[in-house]
Design goal:
homodimer; about 190 residues; alpha/beta; two-stranded antiparallel ribbon
Chain lengths: ~190, ~190
């Protein structure tokens, strides 16, 4: 998506060889018009995928998933939580490894909101090593539901996450694919 | 907002005398059509408030703030974070007390995204004791910015948060005002 690529070049901050900071329009401050157009692009890319629900993970995935859901006829969004609320009993749980922080975390989804009949489009802000993505796929499969596809706003293709998802037979579309970050210099 | 009140009565779960669970449409699964209409209602209530930016807090405020921003001409949304990202230096910090969990947490906003010229509409999912709201007001004032108003999706008026904000001269609008929860029974 040209508009997103141009925005990354204008306002994204490459750090070292693996980090891209997009705090000014996607991860802390939100450009809501851009994100709405990203939602429309996901709707176009995944037209006919048959999804009846979108799954994402808090917090940065929420606005993008919301915009995609609006563009897909207001199908429901479920966002996985990073901490177990004390009012949630017996959720689906998956482990997610953070390569940048070298920590393991769990994400949870209530069993009330995913079940066997669902076809689930997974949407997230970043697709890097694929750990969060694989965790979300794991949760969809625990529910006995089908993965309708995986949409990432920004893919860092040199970190291999998309390949891991495609190896599971999942259709992956990313709105911007970053081939490398070298001394903060971003290349598509 | 009649539609939200009716939805709370239909799908909200009152627990004891102080908790309202709205996981099925607002806090874990999102009814994106309803939330879009809530955003339009905030735009109507705060028309003329002069806000050039919306501030909320992750995670449950994000979709509502996004919808309000869209309805207000795509002004930017900034969401406060509950943990300090390792790429954020020297943020605005405020303390937030959770009455239900009896814990103190901090919320942070990068100094890059709020400054002296801003008029900031604060939006959140719940207004209960007002602790998160006061923390967000504190951050706006640390930035030397003006609070243009405070919008809550659901106010629990018996917990007093709205009074605390109004005592600071802040205009507060809530889309649904809950007067009491008794044995799980919700009254407006």
């Amino acid at each position: 998506m040209k508009e997103l690529e141009q925005r990354i070049l204008k306002d994204g901050v490459g750090i070292g060889s693996d980090i891209l900071k997009v705090d000014s329009f996607l991860n802390h401050q939100l450009d809501t018009g851009l994100i709405a157009r990203m939602g429309e692009e996901f709707a176009r890319l995944f037209a006919g995928c048959g999804a009846n629900k979108i799954l994402t993970v808090e917090a940065s995935g929420i606005a993008i998933a919301f915009a995609a859901a609006r563009a897909m006829g207001d199908i429901p969004v479920v966002f996985a939580k990073k901490a177990l609320p004390n009012t949630m009993e017996d959720p689906y749980v998956a482990k997610v490894h953070s390569f940048t922080k070298n920590t393991d975390k769990t994400i949870v989804v209530s069993k009330s909101y995913l079940s066997g009949g669902d076809r689930v489009l997974i949407i997230d802000d970043f697709l890097a090593y694929g750990s969060a993505g694989l965790g979300l796929v794991d949760i969809v499969r625990q529910a006995g539901a089908e993965v309708a596809g995986f949409g990432a706003a920004i893919e860092k293709s040199f970190q291999g996450g998309a390949e891991k998802l495609r190896a599971l037979g999942i259709t992956v579309h990313s709105l911007a694919v970053i081939a490398s970050i070298e001394d903060g210099n971003i290349k598509f």
